[in-house]
Amino acid sequence: MPFELPDNLHPDCGPVAWMLGTWRGNGKGDYPTIEAFDYGQELIFTHDGRPFFHYMARSWIVDADGQKLREGAIETGFLRCRGEGKVELLLTHHTGIAEIWYGEADGGKLELTTDAVVRTESAKEVTGGKRLYGNVEGDLLYAVDLAAVGQPLQPHLWARLQRA
Fold it and tell me: Which pLDDT score is estimated for 30?
């Protein structure tokens, strides 16, 4: 599906403009404290002409045949474009975690690292993370590394999504 830049795209958002829209696909997850799993996911990036995108993601756990077993993670936030490819991501999760990420976007790639993580009393301990998003052959590929529950930073999620 061809993608056209919106007329009202803020110039600071140019390096991440390729992310706009709805993406769907499948991924895998793993971590020392949980059993490996497969999941389906939908990511939505919207904008209104100001220098940020609203971001919403939802996922669901699937079986080996891709059939939905149950709901998974939900996160939402704002990808703030600061010019010259600099970005900030403010992100909240349904699990009681809020994060601030800083990074850079260039050439169809966005790399982010956590600066701050806060959590509610009932949330699991998360101490940091890294995210890499890339435009590969028109698909959105991403990988998430996580440091949580006493574990060092390591791979946690990876997926390939197609533009809906």
Answer: 97
The CATH number given to whatever domain includes residue 74 is 2.40.128.20
> Any known ligand binding at 124?
yes
pLDDT at 3: 75
Give the domain extent around 123.
11-163
DSSP string computed for 17-79: GGG-EEEEEEEEEEETTEEEEEEEEEEEEE--SSSEEEEEEEEEEE-TTS-EEEEEEEEEEEE
Residue 146 pLDDT greater than 70, yes or no: yes
Domain annotation covers residue 4: no
DSSP state of 125: P
Q: Read off the tokens for 155.
A: 């791979």
Mean pLDDT of 23-42: 97
pTM above 0.90, yes or no: yes
DSSP structure class, residue 15: G
Residue 124 has pLDDT above 80, yes or no: yes
SS3 13: helix
Tell me if 33 is assigned to a ligand binding site: yes
**Domain-embedded: residue 1:** no
**Could you tell me if residue 146 is inside a domain?**
yes
Tokens encoding 24: 């769907």
Give the separation between CA 161 and CA 104, rounded to whole angstroms.
21
